[in-house]
Amino acid sequence: MISHTLDHAMFGLFSTHALHLADKHGVFTHLIQEGPADPAGIARSRQIDAETLERLLLVLAAVSVVERDDEGTYRLAPELVPALDRRSPRYLGSFVRHLVTNTTGQLHQLDAYLTQGKAAVDAELPSPFDTIYKDEAATEAFLEAMWQLSFGVSGELVRLAELDGVRTLVDVGGASGAFAVAALRSYPELNVTVFDLPQVGPFLERTREAEGSGDRLGFVPGDFFADALPRAECLSFGYILSDWDDETCVELLTKAYDACANGGRVLLMERLFDEAGGPLATAAMNLSMHVETQGRHRTASEYTGLLEKSGFVDCSVHRSTWDKHLVVGRKP
Fold it and tell me: Are 84 and 32 in contact (CB under 8 A)?
Protein backbone atom coordinates (compact mmCIF):
# COMPACT_ATOMS: atom_id res chain seq x y z
CA MET A 1 0.00 0.00 0.00
CA ILE A 2 1.39 3.42 -1.00
CA SER A 3 1.64 5.88 1.89
CA HIS A 4 -0.40 9.07 2.06
CA THR A 5 2.85 11.08 1.90
CA LEU A 6 4.01 9.35 -1.27
CA ASP A 7 0.56 9.76 -2.80
CA HIS A 8 0.81 13.53 -2.40
CA ALA A 9 4.33 13.55 -3.84
CA MET A 10 3.37 11.47 -6.88
CA PHE A 11 0.06 13.07 -7.72
CA GLY A 12 0.77 16.71 -6.92
CA LEU A 13 1.03 17.29 -10.66
CA PHE A 14 -2.70 16.62 -11.00
CA SER A 15 -3.83 18.72 -8.05
CA THR A 16 -1.82 21.76 -9.24
CA HIS A 17 -3.42 21.58 -12.68
CA ALA A 18 -6.88 21.00 -11.18
CA LEU A 19 -6.38 24.05 -8.96
CA HIS A 20 -5.35 26.18 -11.93
CA LEU A 21 -8.22 25.08 -14.17
CA ALA A 22 -10.87 25.49 -11.48
CA ASP A 23 -9.62 29.03 -10.91
CA LYS A 24 -9.29 29.84 -14.62
CA HIS A 25 -12.86 28.76 -15.39
CA GLY A 26 -14.46 30.51 -12.44
CA VAL A 27 -15.34 27.42 -10.40
CA PHE A 28 -14.07 28.95 -7.17
CA THR A 29 -15.76 32.25 -7.97
CA HIS A 30 -19.06 30.35 -8.37
CA LEU A 31 -18.66 28.53 -5.05
CA ILE A 32 -17.72 31.75 -3.25
CA GLN A 33 -20.56 33.82 -4.70
CA GLU A 34 -23.32 31.22 -5.04
CA GLY A 35 -22.47 28.79 -2.24
CA PRO A 36 -22.33 24.96 -2.35
CA ALA A 37 -23.22 23.43 -5.71
CA ASP A 38 -23.02 20.21 -7.68
CA PRO A 39 -20.80 19.85 -10.77
CA ALA A 40 -23.76 19.97 -13.18
CA GLY A 41 -24.96 23.28 -11.76
CA ILE A 42 -21.51 24.82 -11.80
CA ALA A 43 -20.90 23.56 -15.33
CA ARG A 44 -24.14 25.11 -16.62
CA SER A 45 -23.32 28.42 -15.00
CA ARG A 46 -19.73 28.52 -16.24
CA GLN A 47 -20.48 26.90 -19.63
CA ILE A 48 -17.94 24.11 -19.17
CA ASP A 49 -18.07 20.31 -19.38
CA ALA A 50 -19.69 18.71 -16.32
CA GLU A 51 -17.87 15.36 -16.45
CA THR A 52 -14.42 16.95 -16.69
CA LEU A 53 -15.31 19.36 -13.92
CA GLU A 54 -16.44 16.57 -11.61
CA ARG A 55 -13.15 14.74 -12.11
CA LEU A 56 -11.23 17.93 -11.31
CA LEU A 57 -13.33 18.50 -8.20
CA LEU A 58 -12.73 14.95 -6.98
CA VAL A 59 -9.00 15.61 -7.11
CA LEU A 60 -9.41 18.91 -5.27
CA ALA A 61 -11.58 17.20 -2.65
CA ALA A 62 -8.92 14.55 -2.14
CA VAL A 63 -6.39 17.26 -1.25
CA SER A 64 -8.94 19.19 0.87
CA VAL A 65 -9.18 22.28 -1.33
CA VAL A 66 -12.92 21.67 -1.62
CA GLU A 67 -15.28 19.63 0.55
CA ARG A 68 -17.76 17.10 -0.89
CA ASP A 69 -20.88 15.85 0.90
CA ASP A 70 -22.71 12.54 0.42
CA GLU A 71 -25.01 14.06 -2.21
CA GLY A 72 -22.09 15.13 -4.42
CA THR A 73 -22.37 18.81 -3.54
CA TYR A 74 -19.12 20.75 -3.27
CA ARG A 75 -18.15 23.73 -1.15
CA LEU A 76 -14.87 25.59 -0.84
CA ALA A 77 -12.88 24.98 2.35
CA PRO A 78 -13.51 28.26 4.28
CA GLU A 79 -9.91 28.81 5.29
CA LEU A 80 -8.85 28.77 1.61
CA VAL A 81 -11.32 31.40 0.41
CA PRO A 82 -8.87 34.35 0.74
CA ALA A 83 -6.31 32.63 -1.49
CA LEU A 84 -8.89 31.69 -4.15
CA ASP A 85 -11.13 34.78 -4.17
CA ARG A 86 -10.06 37.09 -6.99
CA ARG A 87 -11.13 40.10 -4.92
CA SER A 88 -8.84 39.22 -2.02
CA PRO A 89 -5.31 40.60 -1.46
CA ARG A 90 -4.27 37.01 -0.68
CA TYR A 91 -5.48 35.68 -4.06
CA LEU A 92 -2.87 33.38 -5.64
CA GLY A 93 -4.52 32.38 -8.90
CA SER A 94 -2.06 34.23 -11.15
CA PHE A 95 0.88 32.69 -9.32
CA VAL A 96 -0.60 29.20 -9.77
CA ARG A 97 -1.06 30.01 -13.47
CA HIS A 98 2.63 30.97 -13.63
CA LEU A 99 3.58 27.63 -12.07
CA VAL A 100 1.49 25.69 -14.58
CA THR A 101 2.18 27.65 -17.76
CA ASN A 102 5.80 28.66 -17.13
CA THR A 103 7.57 26.75 -14.37
CA THR A 104 6.24 23.30 -15.25
CA GLY A 105 7.53 23.59 -18.80
CA GLN A 106 11.07 24.16 -17.54
CA LEU A 107 11.31 21.39 -14.94
CA HIS A 108 12.50 18.94 -17.58
CA GLN A 109 15.83 20.79 -17.43
CA LEU A 110 16.51 19.28 -14.01
CA ASP A 111 17.43 15.95 -15.59
CA ALA A 112 20.11 17.63 -17.69
CA TYR A 113 21.28 19.63 -14.67
CA LEU A 114 21.83 16.38 -12.79
CA THR A 115 23.93 14.84 -15.54
CA GLN A 116 25.69 17.89 -16.98
CA GLY A 117 25.44 20.64 -14.35
CA LYS A 118 23.41 23.84 -14.53
CA ALA A 119 26.18 26.01 -15.96
CA ALA A 120 26.73 23.73 -18.96
CA VAL A 121 23.02 23.41 -19.75
CA ASP A 122 22.22 27.10 -19.27
CA ALA A 123 25.06 28.13 -21.57
CA GLU A 124 22.82 27.07 -24.45
CA LEU A 125 19.75 28.94 -23.16
CA PRO A 126 18.76 32.63 -23.15
CA SER A 127 19.24 34.52 -19.89
CA PRO A 128 16.32 34.13 -17.45
CA PHE A 129 14.92 37.64 -17.76
CA ASP A 130 15.21 37.63 -21.55
CA THR A 131 12.63 34.84 -21.35
CA ILE A 132 10.50 36.35 -18.60
CA TYR A 133 10.32 39.72 -20.39
CA LYS A 134 10.38 38.35 -23.93
CA ASP A 135 7.27 40.30 -24.99
CA GLU A 136 4.54 42.47 -23.49
CA ALA A 137 2.21 39.55 -22.75
CA ALA A 138 4.92 37.57 -20.94
CA THR A 139 5.98 40.66 -18.99
CA GLU A 140 2.40 41.39 -17.95
CA ALA A 141 1.77 37.80 -16.83
CA PHE A 142 4.97 37.72 -14.76
CA LEU A 143 4.32 41.10 -13.14
CA GLU A 144 0.76 40.10 -12.28
CA ALA A 145 2.02 36.92 -10.59
CA MET A 146 4.65 38.89 -8.67
CA TRP A 147 2.05 41.47 -7.58
CA GLN A 148 -0.12 38.71 -6.15
CA LEU A 149 2.82 37.16 -4.32
CA SER A 150 3.93 40.51 -2.92
CA PHE A 151 1.12 42.99 -2.41
CA GLY A 152 -0.81 41.31 0.38
CA VAL A 153 2.24 40.72 2.57
CA SER A 154 3.76 44.11 1.75
CA GLY A 155 1.48 45.94 4.16
CA GLU A 156 2.82 43.82 7.02
CA LEU A 157 6.42 44.10 5.80
CA VAL A 158 6.10 47.89 5.67
CA ARG A 159 4.98 47.91 9.31
CA LEU A 160 7.86 45.62 10.29
CA ALA A 161 10.29 47.95 8.47
CA GLU A 162 9.20 50.93 10.62
CA LEU A 163 9.77 53.61 7.99
CA ASP A 164 8.81 56.55 10.22
CA GLY A 165 11.00 59.51 9.36
CA VAL A 166 12.21 58.01 6.06
CA ARG A 167 11.59 60.39 3.15
CA THR A 168 13.12 58.51 0.21
CA LEU A 169 13.04 54.81 -0.64
CA VAL A 170 14.28 53.05 -3.78
CA ASP A 171 12.69 49.67 -4.50
CA VAL A 172 15.26 47.82 -6.58
CA GLY A 173 13.59 45.49 -9.07
CA GLY A 174 10.27 46.74 -7.69
CA ALA A 175 8.24 45.58 -10.71
CA SER A 176 4.77 47.12 -10.95
CA GLY A 177 5.02 48.61 -7.47
CA ALA A 178 3.45 46.24 -4.93
CA PHE A 179 5.80 47.14 -2.06
CA ALA A 180 6.00 50.77 -3.19
CA VAL A 181 2.22 51.18 -3.02
CA ALA A 182 2.01 49.58 0.41
CA ALA A 183 4.74 51.91 1.68
CA LEU A 184 3.13 55.02 0.18
CA ARG A 185 -0.23 54.17 1.70
CA SER A 186 1.31 53.78 5.16
CA TYR A 187 3.66 56.78 5.14
CA PRO A 188 2.24 60.01 3.63
CA GLU A 189 5.61 61.79 3.78
CA LEU A 190 7.44 59.04 1.89
CA ASN A 191 8.50 59.14 -1.77
CA VAL A 192 9.32 55.86 -3.52
CA THR A 193 11.27 55.26 -6.72
CA VAL A 194 11.06 51.91 -8.45
CA PHE A 195 14.30 50.98 -10.25
CA ASP A 196 13.74 48.26 -12.82
CA LEU A 197 14.25 47.31 -16.45
CA PRO A 198 12.70 49.68 -19.03
CA GLN A 199 10.04 47.08 -19.99
CA VAL A 200 8.49 47.51 -16.56
CA GLY A 201 7.88 51.25 -16.94
CA PRO A 202 4.45 51.14 -18.64
CA PHE A 203 3.12 48.75 -16.00
CA LEU A 204 4.33 50.94 -13.14
CA GLU A 205 2.63 53.88 -14.85
CA ARG A 206 -0.64 51.94 -14.70
CA THR A 207 -0.11 51.49 -10.96
CA ARG A 208 0.63 55.19 -10.49
CA GLU A 209 -2.57 56.15 -12.33
CA ALA A 210 -4.68 53.59 -10.46
CA GLU A 211 -3.32 54.73 -7.09
CA GLY A 212 -3.25 58.44 -7.87
CA SER A 213 0.28 58.53 -6.47
CA GLY A 214 1.51 61.39 -8.65
CA ASP A 215 5.13 62.40 -8.09
CA ARG A 216 5.38 60.33 -4.91
CA LEU A 217 5.84 57.18 -7.02
CA GLY A 218 8.68 57.49 -9.50
CA PHE A 219 10.37 55.17 -11.97
CA VAL A 220 14.01 55.03 -13.02
CA PRO A 221 14.74 52.57 -15.84
CA GLY A 222 18.02 50.74 -15.69
CA ASP A 223 19.99 47.54 -15.31
CA PHE A 224 21.27 47.03 -11.79
CA PHE A 225 24.34 45.24 -13.12
CA ALA A 226 25.31 48.03 -15.50
CA ASP A 227 24.04 51.12 -13.70
CA ALA A 228 24.47 52.72 -10.30
CA LEU A 229 21.42 52.57 -8.07
CA PRO A 230 19.56 55.81 -7.28
CA ARG A 231 20.49 57.31 -3.92
CA ALA A 232 18.01 57.11 -1.03
CA GLU A 233 17.70 56.84 2.73
CA CYS A 234 16.40 53.29 2.34
CA LEU A 235 16.71 50.70 -0.44
CA SER A 236 14.61 47.55 -0.71
CA PHE A 237 14.98 44.25 -2.56
CA GLY A 238 11.87 42.07 -2.71
CA TYR A 239 12.33 38.59 -4.22
CA ILE A 240 15.44 39.84 -6.01
CA LEU A 241 18.44 38.26 -4.28
CA SER A 242 16.87 34.80 -4.56
CA ASP A 243 17.35 35.16 -8.33
CA TRP A 244 21.16 35.28 -8.03
CA ASP A 245 24.18 33.49 -6.59
CA ASP A 246 26.03 34.73 -3.51
CA GLU A 247 28.74 36.58 -5.41
CA THR A 248 26.18 38.51 -7.45
CA CYS A 249 24.14 39.28 -4.33
CA VAL A 250 27.19 40.82 -2.65
CA GLU A 251 27.79 42.88 -5.80
CA LEU A 252 24.22 44.19 -5.73
CA LEU A 253 24.27 44.85 -1.99
CA THR A 254 27.56 46.72 -2.33
CA LYS A 255 25.87 48.96 -4.89
CA ALA A 256 23.02 49.44 -2.43
CA TYR A 257 25.52 50.33 0.29
CA ASP A 258 27.05 52.99 -1.99
CA ALA A 259 23.61 54.43 -2.81
CA CYS A 260 22.34 54.36 0.77
CA ALA A 261 22.58 57.48 2.94
CA ASN A 262 24.73 57.25 6.05
CA GLY A 263 22.59 55.84 8.82
CA GLY A 264 20.16 54.44 6.25
CA ARG A 265 18.92 50.90 5.74
CA VAL A 266 18.51 48.15 3.21
CA LEU A 267 15.47 45.87 3.33
CA LEU A 268 15.60 42.30 2.01
CA MET A 269 12.22 40.63 1.61
CA GLU A 270 12.40 36.93 0.85
CA ARG A 271 11.19 33.45 1.67
CA LEU A 272 13.44 32.00 4.35
CA PHE A 273 14.55 28.43 4.90
CA ASP A 274 14.44 27.22 8.46
CA GLU A 275 17.47 25.34 9.77
CA ALA A 276 15.82 21.98 8.96
CA GLY A 277 15.47 22.82 5.26
CA GLY A 278 11.77 23.65 5.23
CA PRO A 279 9.06 24.72 4.81
CA LEU A 280 7.79 22.93 1.71
CA ALA A 281 6.86 26.12 -0.17
CA THR A 282 10.38 27.48 0.25
CA ALA A 283 11.96 24.18 -0.76
CA ALA A 284 9.74 23.97 -3.85
CA MET A 285 10.43 27.55 -4.87
CA ASN A 286 14.13 26.94 -4.30
CA LEU A 287 13.90 24.26 -6.98
CA SER A 288 11.97 26.70 -9.17
CA MET A 289 14.77 29.26 -8.75
CA HIS A 290 17.19 26.63 -10.03
CA VAL A 291 15.40 26.29 -13.37
CA GLU A 292 13.95 29.79 -13.79
CA THR A 293 16.81 31.96 -12.50
CA GLN A 294 20.40 31.73 -11.32
CA GLY A 295 19.61 31.92 -7.62
CA ARG A 296 18.32 30.09 -4.57
CA HIS A 297 16.49 30.65 -1.33
CA ARG A 298 18.50 31.05 1.88
CA THR A 299 18.26 31.04 5.65
CA ALA A 300 18.03 34.29 7.59
CA SER A 301 21.61 33.87 8.75
CA GLU A 302 22.81 33.46 5.16
CA TYR A 303 21.15 36.75 4.16
CA THR A 304 22.67 38.42 7.21
CA GLY A 305 26.06 37.14 6.08
CA LEU A 306 25.60 38.67 2.63
CA LEU A 307 24.65 42.01 4.18
CA GLU A 308 27.69 42.02 6.45
CA LYS A 309 30.04 41.18 3.55
CA SER A 310 28.64 44.26 1.80
CA GLY A 311 29.34 46.56 4.75
CA PHE A 312 25.98 46.66 6.52
CA VAL A 313 25.80 46.30 10.31
CA ASP A 314 23.24 45.73 13.07
CA CYS A 315 21.37 43.22 10.92
CA SER A 316 17.99 42.02 12.15
CA VAL A 317 15.31 39.53 11.08
CA HIS A 318 11.58 40.26 11.23
CA ARG A 319 9.18 37.42 10.41
CA SER A 320 5.73 38.09 8.98
CA THR A 321 2.63 35.90 9.22
CA TRP A 322 3.05 35.12 5.48
CA ASP A 323 5.74 33.26 3.51
CA LYS A 324 7.79 36.39 2.87
CA HIS A 325 9.96 37.85 5.63
CA LEU A 326 12.20 40.85 6.25
CA VAL A 327 15.95 41.04 6.86
CA VAL A 328 17.32 44.53 7.60
CA GLY A 329 20.87 45.88 7.41
CA ARG A 330 21.97 49.35 8.50
CA LYS A 331 24.68 51.53 6.99
CA PRO A 332 26.89 53.11 9.66
Answer: yes
